[in-house]
Amino acid sequence: MEILSVESLAKKYGKKTALRNVNIKVLKGEIVGFIGPNGAGKTTFIKCITGLLKPQEGSINLFGYNLFQHYGKVMKNVGLLLEPAFYDYLTAFENLKILMKVSGNYDLKKIEEVMEFVGLWEVRNKYVTTFSFGMKQRLGLAQALMNDPQFLILDEPTVGLDPVGVNELKEKLRYLSRDKGVTILFSSHQLSDVEEICDRVVLIKEGSILYNGSINDITSQKEYHVILSTDKVDLESFKEEIMNGLVNFEDTVLIVKDREILGRILRKLFIQNIDILDINIKKGSLIELFYEEGMKQQ
Q1: With 70 as the cut, is the pLDDT of residue 30 above it?
Q2: Whole-angstrom Cα distance, residue 289 to residue 194?
Q3: Which site from 23, 72, 131, 138 is most exposed, i.e. has the minimal number of CB atoms within 10 Å?
Q4: What is the rounded CA–CA span in Å between residue 186 and residue 155?
Q5: Within a 13 Å sphere around the CA of 257, how many CA atoms are in the beta-carbon half?
Q6: Tens digit of each residue's pLDDT (9 = 90 or more) over 36-63
């Protein structure tokens, strides 16, 4: 089931294009990482799909309904963590109580449940002005969870959290996805966190989608770095592999991008009497994708 379907989305601020022809689908139960450099369009995209901004072009469907035609119906099933703001002179509990009253669903047990879930129940009666940034992030997550959302949208949720807090958050998001069937859009600059918990990743830069694919497809990729005793290699014998992008030379390192041809490459080196000092296996990573795809657009 498609939770989110975005087609041909475009947004401009005056003459500046923030989003151009963005197409994204998010399926039920997925945790989708949303990454990109500063100014790439991530926050603009999140504001568009939650109705905080209206795009000039394109369509946004949530749960099969047009966002702007059925705003109240769809948004009651969405939880959003985006630049959380609270009344500093009130306690954490009082802040959530006010937000719950505004939503029209007054349930004090629900406040207790979400504060327990994010680890703030013991400090519920402390004033928010005494909270660290990380504690305010936890309170923001509690706010996003108060309506039992089917779709949870998180913008930089790990900012301000210590390593223990980050690990706790990742475990809670896995639980929500795995056990509760909650769909999560996880926007973050922390690529290692995205790689660890997400099923799929979307990379955006300058308002355009550069990559949309599974994390497994990225991390399952391997390169074989063959360390040679010399850089004096007869490149003509590797002409076919080089032309097909399967082999690359960097000084005394021969990079093989397909395990199926590794044996053939090693035999060619043996014929040329070139000693092989070592063979290193390099696995694909989200960090490499981030830099490689980004550099293609420079």
Answers
A1: yes
A2: 13
A3: 72
A4: 7
A5: 10
A6: 999 999 999 999 999 999 999 999 999 9
Where on the phi/psi map is residue 63: left (φ > 0), alpha (ψ -120 to 50), or beta? left
pLDDT at residue 294, rounded to an integer: 61
Residue with tokens 């080196």: 269
Residue 104: pLDDT over 80: no
Do 133 and 61 fall within a single domain? yes
For residues 121 and 109, give the distance between their C-alpha atoms in angstroms, rounded to a whole number: 12
Whether residue 298 is predicted with pLDDT greater than 50 in this model: the reply is no
% of the chain surpassing 90 pLDDT:
64
Domain end position, chosen among 218, 241, 267: 218
Cross-strand bridge partners of residue 11: 19
d(C-alpha 152, C-alpha 173), whole Å: 10
Q: Are residues 163 and 70 in the same domain?
A: yes
Give the Å distances, CA to CA, from 149 to 24, 109, 143, 145.
Answer: 20, 16, 11, 6
- Residue 148 belongs to domain spanning: 2-218
Return the structure tokens found at 13. 């601020």
What's the mean pLDDT when you consider all of the chain? 90
> What token pair was written down for 71?
């705003």
E strand or H helix at 224: strand 222-228
94 closest CA partner among 133, 142, 42, 27: 142
- Token reading at 295: 């550099």
